[in-house]
User: Fold this.
Amino acid sequence: MVSSPEIVVPEVPLLRHSATPPPLASAHDVYAPGHLGELTQVVDPQLVDAVLEETGSRERRVRLLPARVVVYFVLALAFFERSSYQAVWDKLCAGLRGTAVARPCASSLSRARRRVGSAPLRRLFEVLAGPVAARAQAGSFWHGLRVVAVDGTTLSIPDEKAVTWRFPKHRGQVLEFG
Assistant:
């Protein structure tokens, strides 16, 4: 892992231009921290703003799709990889029902994603990546090795006798699988 300096998240209110509510919305920031679902509970909006500032990716004018929202949208795309841009946007904004919110088309979301670029996401990964459990935490190490869990991973291996001898295939009523 690449060692990088820590980002100090400033204790300042979010800039007004970072997310301006639509004219018919409430006086509060429509995309305020917490409004974009669980992702804002895991990845702090102030951290996202600091990363956008550091990488020079913050928007320079008021937009319907602020850079912070685009970062959360790209993170949500990773969770819902089989969904369309529109479906992911709807899931991201599900907590905003009843509030006037932009519903951008797929091409607008794509342009916004390209405008923000990959630098903020790369930097966000550098800041957040790493082990969660400390050495002293029970169950985090086994015989001196860190315990790692990999979920949702599929490995393709050759369909050869040396492999199927150790890992036999399963037979269903119609197909053989495994």
